[in-house]
Amino acid sequence: MVRHFLIGCAFVACVAAASAQAPAPDTWPQFRGGPTLTGVAAGALAPTLKVAWSYEAGDAVESSAAIADGRVFVGVGSGHLLALSLADGKVLWKYAVEQGIGESSPAVSNGIVYVGDLGGVVHAVNAADGKRVWTYKTKGEIKSSPVVAGDRVIIGSYDAHLYAFSAKDGKLIWTAETENYVHGTPAIADGLVYLAGCDEVFRAIRISDGKEAFTIPIGAYTGASVALANGRAYFGTFNNEVLAVDLKARKRLWRYAPTDRQFPFYSSAAVAESTVVLGGRDKMVHGLDAATGKARWTFTTRARVDSSPVIVGERVYVGSSDGRFYVLDLRKGEKLWEFDAGGPVTASPAVAAGRIVIGSQDGRVICFT
Questions:
Q1: Stretch (H or E) spanning 265
Q2: Angle 324-310-314 (CA atoms, 0-180°, nearest 5)?
């Protein structure tokens, strides 16, 4: 009994430590940068961006890139996981899946790339050469992105389950059942997985055994992933609102719901410097006070904003379905720069080594420096 307790404590400590770490400046190992999904990058980017390279992927790129060891990993709708050189965009390898890769974004850990596909298969691929390590077939398509916590890979499926696998060999460790699709990417902190689901419930699930720690009814369908910061969870819903949940008190802290327009929030939030930033289907990017939920600013694009923003220093980087990639001032929401990507941009940026990478619906992967 004591031995099991100590092992459990060690596992939780390992996960907690991993969750607290922001990605190093030269890496962006998963969707939103790290397990807490805050969308904040270390390091810096040039004041004015320029295109370093562009790769024609041949089909829509809804998957957001991961960057590790000088390589860009990204999924393509045509049915490939790509590894590109961060330096020049050269193809290093292609890994084929039977059905396409949609919004599921790769995660990289210990030399293995993990991703889900629209056929419901979780893939583990050798990052060096693109060879298969293991696969697991779920019973529904996968749009959730994997998150690595210690020796486990956590990912959701449209079969209404959250899965935990052994990162090394794909052995199923546990499943947690929900009442609807698991679309969002799980956020992880302090030994718990947090998920705001399509079943209108906010869940905290123990990584150790997959059991629920607590649930909070949220009364709204949620496609966005949860961002964790300062003991709070932030996420938008299809009920035209953004919610903040106090994780310790286990209750809703505030609700932001614009009264002059009624559009869903599909974009996942970025949180930095007491500001929550996310896109809306009202064609706007919203900057909110993290403590109160009051609007600090809004920026209007020409189409809905499903791309999830990334914060680097005092700037916000985000795509829009109007085909443009925007750079905004974090404090004021003013436009500093924009780039015409040629097609709707619903993927989210990845930042590493002074470069930023994003895909577009017209099949391009673009790297800026």
A1: none
A2: 100
CA angle, 275 then 258 then 230, to 5°:
25
Residues β-bridged to residue 345: none
Q: Mean pLDDT of successive 10-residue segments in the chain (369 residues)? A: 39 38 87 98 96 98 98 97 98 97 98 98 98 98 98 98 98 98 98 96 98 97 96 97 98 94 94 96 98 98 98 98 98 98 97 98 98
Topology (CATH level 3) of domain 2-368 = Methylamine Dehydrogenase; Chain H (2.130.10)
Cross-strand pairs, 312: 41, 315
318-337: string of b/e by CB count within 10 Å (b at 16+)?
bbbbbbbbbbbebeebeebe
pTM beyond 0.90: the answer is yes
**What is the side-by-side strand order in the sheet with 355-359?**
51-56, 364-368, 355-359, 350-352
The conformation of residue 18, written as its DSSP 8-state character, comes to: H
What sign results for the dihedral spanned by CA atoms 148, 154, 158, 159? positive
Q: So what's the pLDDT on residue 5?
A: 37
The domain ranges of the chain are 2-368
Structure-token match 């614009």, residue found? 258
Structural tokens at position 369: 């420096």
**CA 367, 61, 261: angle at the middle one, nearest 5?**
100
CA distance 210 to 156: 13
Q: Give the chain's count of helices (H) and strands (E).
A: 1, 33
